[in-house]
C-alpha cells in the first residue's frame, strides 16, 4: 500500500510540477549515462590525485562510486540471470542512471564551483541528479522504486564522501570547468546509445548459464497471470 500511494503521489502531483517536453526529459536522462559521467569523474579525480592534500578525496570518491556501481550491477545481473525482481513494486533492478548521477554530480559541481559557491553548487548537483532520476520514470525506462533506490545509493555514496571531504583550497584550472561542461553537453547531444546494458546482459547470461535474458516484460506477464482474473493489482503495475 505504501508504494502504491507513493507512485500515485508522484504521478498525480509531483511529476506534473515539471511539465517538460519528452525531448527535454530524454536530454536529461542522457546526463546519467556511465559513458558520459565516468570520464568526467576520471578527469576530476586525476586533478585531485595530483596533490597530496586532496588525494584522499579522490580515492574516497572513486571507491564510493565503485562500490555503488558494483551493487547496482549486481542487482541487474540478479534480475537478468536469476529472475530476482519484485513484480508487485514493478522492481527489476536499481537505476544506474540515477545512481551515477547522485554519486558524481554533487561533488563535481562543488569542485567546479570553487570555495566561495561550493555549497550552492553541491545542492545544484543533487538537484540535477534528481531531474535525471525523474527523467528515467518520465521516459518509461524505470519504475519509481528503481530510481528511488538508485538515487538513494548514489546519494549515500556522495554524502559519505562530502562528510569526510577535505576540499582543495583553490579552484580548478580555468580550462577544466569549460572542458567538463563541454563534454557533458556535447556527449548528451551526440554520443551513441549507451551499450552498458548490453554488457551487463552478456555478463548475466555468462554467469547464470541462461540462454536468453529475463526481462521486465516477462516478469510483468507472469505477475499478471498469477493474479485473480489475470488483471493488474494496481494501475501501472503491469505495462
Question: What is this entry, summarized?
Answer:
With 239 residues, this protein is mostly helical.
SSE layout:
Layout (H helix, E strand, L loop, with lengths): L1 H13 L7 H9 L3 H16 L5 H28 L13 H18 L4 H21 L5 H21 L10 H16 L5 H13 L7 H11 L13
How would you describe the shape? elongated
Sheet of most strands: none
Structural classification: mainly alpha
How many angstroms does the end-to-end distance come to? 19 Å
Helix content: 55-70%
Overall strand count: 0
Radius of gyration: 19 Å
What fraction strand? under 5%
Count, helices? 10
The low-confidence parts are 234-239
User: H/E element string?
Assistant: HHHHHHHHHH
pLDDT averaged over residues: 89
Can you walk through the features of this model?
- This protein has 239 residues and is mainly alpha-helical.
- The protein has a domain at 22-79 and 96-192.
- It is built from 10 helices and no strands.
- The model is unreliable at 234-239 (pLDDT under 50).
List keywords for this structure.
single chain, 0% strand
Amino acid at each position: 500500500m505504501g508504494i502504491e500511494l507513493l507512485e500515485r503521489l508522484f504521478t498525480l502531483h509531483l511529476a506534473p510540477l515539471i511539465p517538460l517536453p519528452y525531448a527535454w526529459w530524454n536530454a536529461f536522462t542522457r546526463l546519467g549515462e556511465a559513458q558520459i559521467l565516468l570520464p568526467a569523474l576520471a578527469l576530476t579525480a586525476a586533478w585531485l590525485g595530483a596533490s597530496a592534500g586532496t588525494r584522499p578525496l579522490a580515492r574516497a570518491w572513486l571507491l564510493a562510486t565503485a562500490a555503488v556501481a558494483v551493487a547496482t550491477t549486481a542487482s541487474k545481473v540478479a534480475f537478468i540471470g536469476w529472475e530476482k525482481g519484485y513484480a508487485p513494486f514493478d522492481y527489476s533492478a536499481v537505476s544506474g542512471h540515477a545512481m551515477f548521477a547522485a554519486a558524481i554530480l554533487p561533488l563535481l559541481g562543488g569542485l567546479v564551483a570553487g570555495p566561495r559557491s561550493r555549497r550552492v553548487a553541491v545542492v545544484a548537483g543533487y538537484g540535477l541528479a534528481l531531474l535525471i532520476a525523474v527523467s528515467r520514470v518520465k521516459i518509461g525506462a524505470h519504475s519509481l522504486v528503481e530510481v528511488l533506490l538508485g538515487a538513494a545509493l548514489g546519494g549515500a555514496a556522495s554524502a559519505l564522501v562530502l562528510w569526510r571531504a577535505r576540499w582543495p583550497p583553490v579552484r580548478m584550472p580555468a580550462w577544466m570547468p569549460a572542458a567538463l561542461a563541454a563534454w557533458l553537453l556535447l556527449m548528451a547531444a551526440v554520443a551513441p546509445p549507451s551499450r552498458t546494458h548490453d554488457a551487463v546482459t552478456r555478463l548475466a547470461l555468462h554467469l547464470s548459464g541462461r540462454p536468453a535474458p529475463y526481462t521486465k516484460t516477462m516478469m510483468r506477464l507472469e505477475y499478471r497471470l498469477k493474479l485473480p482474473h489475470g488483471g493488474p493489482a494496481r494501475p501501472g503495475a503491469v505495462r
